[in-house]
């Protein structure tokens, strides 16, 4: 539940943020009558995301004939790769998001084709929705995740993201977006480390990595199949009896991906065009 909450909160909030930017732009230029295109595009993107989830579930049936554990391991490592890329991309481009969207909207307004705002809304919502489907598919491949707990976490994540998005654009904008993305990046990093460790455990079970004895056993204190243990398993990758390869993989991923996520970028000299394109202080400041 914890991991699905974090993933859906992050992805749904990014979609809400993009929609809010588009709505705010249309209000600023006095084109509130074009709101319908944004709403239509957002709803269509949501429907397409749900359809993608249904398609993934349908296609996973034939894939399981290759071996459930093998498919689960492949799905887990794909999800880890996507989470890592997504976290890195957001760290690199989050501050330019508003400026990029505004440039596309300015072009649409200049050509009198404001229906394009619907396409912007659709692509933004569908991209986040499709990523969520793939992330959750990887999380559901863990034996300790699933059922109503995962569904509840996902619903709560979407609901919280909707409330935060509404509060930013209708309220006082007290939420610090850099801080929000920083905190959720750390949480996603921990979730991905747990997934990576789980994938290594799957490979051990398949015989690709030599089996090893557990380094410790805390099942007397907290079992993997308990309510709290299952929650921590999905959120942090907790294992009561982890092996050395699983622990090494967990720590190694945290260190490597942490450096990728949080190593400060070297400032580049601004050109006049880039300086002009930089978003003004406000939503993403």
Short description:
With 285 residues, the chain is mostly helical. It has ten helices and no strands.
Overall pLDDT = 76
Please report the distance between the alpha carbons of the first and last residues.
Answer: 31 Å
DSSP strand content: under 5%
Number of strands: 0
The SSE order reads: HHHHHHHHHH
The structural class is mainly alpha
**Radius of gyration computed on alpha carbons:** 21 Å
Shape: elongated
Largest sheet, in brief, is:
none
Contiguous low-pLDDT stretches (5 residues minimum) are 269-285
Oligomer: single chain
- Structure annotation, total helices: 10
Please, could you describe this protein's structure?
- This protein is mainly α and 285 residues long.
- It has helices at residues 2-28, 35-63, 68-93, 97-110, 116-140, 147-170, 177-206, 227-236, 244-262, 272-277.
Tag the structure with descriptive keywords:
285 residues; mainly alpha; 10 helices; 74% helix; disordered C terminus
Give the topology.
Blueprint: H1 2-28, H2 35-63, H3 68-93, H4 97-110, H5 116-140, H6 147-170, H7 177-206, H8 227-236, H9 244-262, H10 272-277
